[in-house]
Amino acid sequence: MTNKRSAHKEYDVDHNFGRLARSPGGVSREAALQRAAAEVERLKPQVTEHIRQEFKRLEAALRSARSGDQPAAIAEAYAASQNLRDVAESVGYSLIGLIATNLCTIFEAVETARIAYPAAIIDCHFKALHLSLSDPYHGKKPHEFPELSAGLAQLAQIAKETTADPDPALSKKS
Amino acid sequence: MLAARNPSINITGLSFLLADPNPHSTAIIHGILRGFGANRVVEVRNNRDAVQVLTEQKIDLMMVDPTLPKGGGLAFIRSLRQDPNSPCRTMPILIITGDTRTSMVKAARDCGANMVIAKPMSPASLYERLTWVAFHPRKFIETATYFGPDRRFKIEGLPNGKGRRAGDSQIEIKAEEGPTLSQNDIDSLLAEARVGGAA
Q1: Sheet holding B15-19, edge to edge
Q2: Tally of CB atoms within 10 A around B129
Q3: Which segments of chain B does DSSP mark as H helices, in order?
Q4: Spatial CA neighbour of B41 closest among B52, B57, B65, B22
Q5: Long-range contacts for B57-60 (Cβ within 8 Å, ≥24 apart)?
Q6: pLDDT tens by residue, A108-141
Q7: pLDDT band at A67 (very low <50, low <70, confident <90, very high)
Q8: Which ranges in A68-165 belong to alpha helices (H)?
Q9: Does B162 touch chain A (CB under 8 A)?
Q10: Residue B24 and residue A14: Cβ atoms within 8 Å?
Q11: Distance (Å, rounded) from C-alpha A95 to C-alpha A139?
C-alpha cells in the first residue's frame, strides 16, 4: 500500500526477517537466553585476554597523552576505553565496564567540548581500572564497592561539567 | 501487529551480517545469536567487505557499528537505503554502539536504521530488540532526503494503559527497588564533597 502526499510516500514493509522469525519452531525464549548466556561464558577467557591487552594499550596511550602528541594519544586512549566498555560487562566484568564507560565520557568531553585534558581525573580512573583487574576487585560488581563507584561517577560528572566552568585544580593544560 | 507478552522468535535459518571493526565485540554478539538458534552469521570488519557479502549472499538482518571503516557505518546504511536498486533497501538494520550520546542516537535514526542497541549487550536486550523488529514492522517513509523506517516512534505507554495517545499500549515496569547506596554512604560522599569544596 502506498499513501501519496507531496514528496512523501509510505510503504508497508514486511521483511523476510519478520516473516520467518514469527514462524513457529526454533528455540523457546527461556532456552534461547540460557544457551546465549552459556555461549558468552564460553567466550570469557578470550575476552578476558582482550581486556588485558586493551588495558596495556590504554596505559601506553595515556603515557603519551601526558607527554607527547596529545590528539593521537587521546584518540588511542579513547579507542581502548571504548573497546573495554563494549565487551567488559557482557562477560560479567561490570566494574571494569563502569570505569571504561566513565573514561569514554571523559574523553568525549575532551573531544567534543574541547575541555583541557583532565589528567588527575583520568589517572584516578586508570588506577581504579588497574585495581579492578586484580584481586580482590577482579570480576566484582560496582555495587560491591559503592564508595569507589560513586566517587568515580562524581569525577566523571566533574569532567563533563568542566565544559561550562573549567576548574584549573582538576584540569591540566597540555 | 501486536505480539503476545514475551513471545519467542524463530531465527534458525535466518542470515545475519555483523559489521563491526572489533572482533571481540562481534564474537560476543555472534555467540549470543548462536545461542538463540542462528546458524548463519557472517562477520565483516569494514564496509567494503559488507558490500561484498550483501552482493553475494542473502542477508535477513544486519547489525552495524557506526565506527565501521571506511567511511563509517551510518553513511554505509544511508547509501543502502538511498539506492532504489538495492535488494537490501528495506532489510532490518540495527546500529550497535557504545556511544549513546543524543547526537549519535539522532544520527542513527536519521540514517535509516531500524533501531539502536547499546553496547555492552546482554542476551536479554538483544532478544528484546529482535523480537520487537520481528513483531512490530514499521512503515517505510520516502522523502526527498530520507528513506527508512518511520522515525515517529509510537510510545509504548505508561502503566495501566495511561499513555499519551489513545492507542498506546501497556508496558511492564519492574518493581521498585531500594536505593543502591545506603544513607550512610550518601552522607559520607556529601561530607567529602563539602570538605573538598571548602578546601
Answers
A1: B40-44, B15-19, B61-64, B93-97, B115-118
A2: 19
A3: 23-36, 47-56, 73-82, 102-111, 123-135, 183-198
A4: B57
A5: B57/B15, B58/B15, B59/B15, B59/B16, B59/B17, B59/B88, B59/B91, B60/A15, B60/A16, B60/A17, B60/A20, B60/B14, B60/B15, B60/B16, B60/B91, B60/B92
A6: 888 777 677 888 899 999 999 998 888 777 777 8
A7: confident
A8: 70-88, 94-112, 119-132, 146-161
A9: no
A10: no
A11: 7
CA distance B198 to chain A (A): 13
Question: Closest chain A residue to B133 measured between Cα atoms?
Answer: A18
Across chain B, what does the average pLDDT equal? 82
The three cell numbers of residue B99 are 556511544
pTM of the model: 0.79
- The pairing of strands A8-11 and A2-5 is antiparallel
Domain architecture of chain A: domains with CATH: 26-164 (1.20.120)
- Neighbour tally for A4: CB within 10 Å: 8
Q: Which three cell numbers stand for residue A115?
A: 575541555
Q: How confident is the model at residue B47 (pLDDT cuts 50, 70, 90)?
A: very high
**CB contact (8 A) between residue A97 and residue B127:** no
